[in-house]
Design goal:
Layout lengths: L5 H32 L3 H21 L10 H24 L2 H8 L2 H13 L5 H5 L1 H11 L8 H28 L3 H23 L15 H27 L2 H23 L5 H29 L17
Amino acid sequence: MAFLTEPSRVFTTFCLGLNLFLAIIIVLLNKWVYVHINFPNVTMTFSHFVMTFIGLVICQSFNIFNVKRLPIFKMLPLAFTFCGFVVFTNLSLGYNTVGTYQIIKTMTMPCIMIIQSYWYGRSFLLKIKMTLIPLTLGVFLNSFYDIKFNILGTVFASIGVVVTSLYQVWVGEKQKEFQVNSMQLLYYQAPLSAAILLLVIPFVEPPWVENGLFHHSWSSTDVIMVLSSGVVAFLVNLSIYWIIGNTSAVTYNVLGQLKFCLTLIGGYVLFHDPIQGVQFLGILMTFIGVYLYTHIKLKEQQQSKGLPLPNKLPVSDRSSSK
């Protein structure tokens, strides 16, 4: 298991916090774009990856990173699983309630652990596995009043969990396999995924139909908001790749549960969205799960070096090999 130095811990904590902040910002931006422009979801994702690639080209022109030649064929599984993640997430949301979608989504973490254990020889402490209990229970309580299963929705959601897990695992594994950083890997994955989505859009979200994007009367505000969403998406994608590459896919999913709770709290505080008493209990359970996960990983990391626990609590999750 890799040991992070103090500067690495500080930078990791910064990236986790930045991703958390940017994720909330992009939710607000995307909500505005969906409501005011009726921008389709898959098309939005396509535009985000186009902007991500443009951002990386600009970064490369300023020598922020060097492009490393990678085998396109070996990059295709990563690009296809991302597109599958987008498609099946949309299908899951379309055929399930939000609560059902959220509760099935929690299966991503154990699915990642299974993939890493059996395909990549990783091992996880029992204590780490046990932290999934309060995390899952917290999401269940948050979604308690909105859970309603159906066969087709469950199938789409389950496929989405598997595809999402593969995508997140491969984000980390490909960085190690090719010995590249997050920017070098995303430089290839972003345009590949955009090209695949471009082939899908005419069939699922044709822009020429009535109320399509071609018929929208674009204002300068609309253009600015769409571009702003793309810029923030570039930063979000970059931070996701860095987090998974330098911690793990499980850590990223734990962070995702924290985002979910903070979004609920933000909606309650800023927009007076109703929250039931049981949801407050769910938020508390999720916070407990996040704390326990962070504490155990930090303790495991420090014990491997025989060092005392520092005051700060970074989240590092390089799983040890069997």
